[in-house]
Structure formats: structure tokens, C-alpha cells
Design brief:
Elements lengths: L2 H13 L4 H4 L3 H13 L8 E5 L5 H9 L4 E6 L2 H10 L4 E4 L11 E7 L8 H10 L1 E12 L5 H11 L4 H10 L6 H8 L5 E13 L1 H10 L4 H4 L4 H18 L8 E13 L1
Parallel strand pairs: 1-2, 1-4, 2-3, 4-5
Antiparallel strand pairs: 5-7, 6-7
């Protein structure tokens, strides 16, 4: 392969930003997990709240409503997402920063990370660091999708491995983070907390056939693959992905397919 196409792909991947419009097509479904996480946060006096990987601000808005007297700070590295978040919750402060390298200027009362930490290769180490950033009695609340083994993601990996793009996409497929068992996280975090609550919920989302599943993941899980493809390759990749989904998911009598979406939750108090 010549250097020029590789350079073009690298440049395209570096400049591709998150698309808030795609992500927010399923805002109610995505925000439901944030609501469920927030409902399990132990109460304490709260003056400073950080929303890590705040995205378009749907979780930040929930935090601002729940803690109206606190300073709410959203952290994200996407210009597109931050622009939407600032317009949505003008009372909050938003900072462009990679959450993998973030550290607060002063101890936090609450660090909230909804569907963000699983993107990082060392999310276990990051969670222990985040606990160290809390004041005594402070809380860490984390939610991570746990769907690597679901049909939707198995289909992504199969399409990535079966096409002219395989040399580019297979490393992406192999690098997707797999969450560990509950016991692993408990044994890692329990010695660092005064209280620990860990649970998993499997959400079931009725979607409009394979097209609905594609729309869902175009705004999230498909991005690492699509970012490495040109426009024509994206069309072909998505067509093959739809075909795999049609084989994997049975249509219900009303024409819907049921997307299983397991999510792992942590509500910790230092």
C-alpha cells in the first residue's frame, strides 16, 4: 500500500469528530441509563460535580437539575459535543480535555462517568485514580456498556474481517475493550471505598429493523470502523452490516427487532 492513502486515512481519522445529531437520535434511551445511575448515587453535601465524557450534555443537564447549588463541570474532547452541551446547559462549565489524562484542580464531591470510561484502554486504572480525586465521602458513579459479545458487535467484527478493508479494521476489532467480570471490579474497588454498589442491567430497545440498529451504532460503536473508511467503503460496509443484522435478529410481529444492551454500573463512596 502506498503512503498517500495511509496518510489520508490517518488524517481522516484524526479530523473525524463525534456527530451529536446521530448520537441524540436515541436520546431518551441513552439518557435512561444516566438516570438509573444517578438514582443510585449516595446522598451527601455536593458542591463540585464533574461529568466525564459529557458528550452532548444530556447527563450534565440531569446533574444540574439534581444539584442546583453545585458547580457542574463537563469534560469532553469533542468540539461538536461540547458545542451542543454548552447550549443545552448554560449554567454548567465545559472543558475540552481527554478524560484519560484529566485530573481536577481540587477534590470532587461527585465524579460521574456515563458511557465513557470503556473507550479507554486502562479504564480499571483510571477508576482507581478517579477515586483518589474525591474528597472523603465523595462519590464516583460509572456506567459502561457491556455489549462486546452481543449479536450487534459480533456482526461488526465479522464484517470488519470480511472485506477489502480487513487489514485496516481487524486491528480495531481486536482493540475493542472487553469488560471483566463483576468480581474483578469488586475486588479492585472495594478496598478503596466505604460503600460499593455494582450491578448490571440488560436494556431491551425495540428498533425499526436492521436499519434502526445501524442508526443506533452509527453514533457510537461503529465509529472506530467507519472513521477508517472512505465514503464508498462506508456504504459497502454498512450494507454488509445490515445483511448480518438481518440474519442475526428476528423481526417481531410488529416489524421491530429487539436490541439487547447490557450495561455495567458502579456507585462508589470514598
Amino acid at each position: 500500500m502506498s503512503a498517500a492513502p495511509a496518510d489520508g486515512i490517518a488524517e481522516r481519522r484524526a479530523t473525524n469528530d463525534w456527530n451529536s445529531a446521530l448520537y441524540l437520535k436515541f436520546e431518551a434511551e441513552r439518557t435512561r441509563a444516566a438516570r438509573d445511575l444517578l438514582a443510585h448515587v449516595p446522598y451527601c453535601d455536593t458542591q463540585r460535580v464533574y461529568d466525564l465524557g459529557c458528550g452532548p450534555g444530556n447527563s450534565t443537564q440531569l446533574l444540574a437539575m439534581s444539584f442546583p447549588d453545585a458547580d457542574i463541570i463537563g469534560i469532553d474532547k469533542s468540539d461538536n459535543m461540547l458545542s451542543v452541551a454548552r447550549a443545552r446547559t448554560p449554567t454548567a462549565t465545559f472543558i475540552k480535555e481527554d478524560i484519560g489524562h484529566w485530573r481536577p484542580s481540587q477534590p470532587a464531591d461527585l465524579i460521574f462517568a456515563n458511557a465513557a470510561l470503556h473507550f479507554l484502554p486502562d479504564h480499571r486504572g483510571l477508576m482507581t485514580r478517579l477515586l483518589s480525586y474525591l474528597r472523603p465521602g465523595g462519590r464516583l458513579a460509572v456506567q459502561m456498556p457491556n455489549n462486546t459479545h452481543e449479536l450487534s458487535h459480533a456482526a461488526m467484527r465479522m464484517v470488519a474481517a470480511d472485506g477489502p478493508w480487513a487489514p485496516r479494521l481487524l486491528p480495531v476489532a481486536k482493540s475493542i475493550m472487553v469488560l471483566g467480570p463483576l468480581e474483578e471490579y469488586y475486588n479492585l474497588l472495594a478496598p478503596l471505598c466505604s460503600t460499593i454498589d455494582i450491578w448490571q442491567t440488560v436494556y431491551v430497545h425495540p428498533l425499526d429493523g436492521p436499519d434502526g440498529v445501524v442508526e443506533w451504532f452509527e453514533g457510537s460503536g461503529l465509529r472506530p470502523f467507519l472513521d477508517l473508511l472512505d465514503a464508498n467503503e462506508r456504504v459497502e460496509f454498512l450494507a454488509r452490516y445490515r445483511g448480518r443484522l438481518a440474519q442475526a435478529y428476528s423481526r417481531q410481529p410488529d416489524g421491530k427487532v429487539l436490541l439487547r444492551y447490557p450495561r455495567l454500573f458502579f456507585a462508589l463512596q470514598k
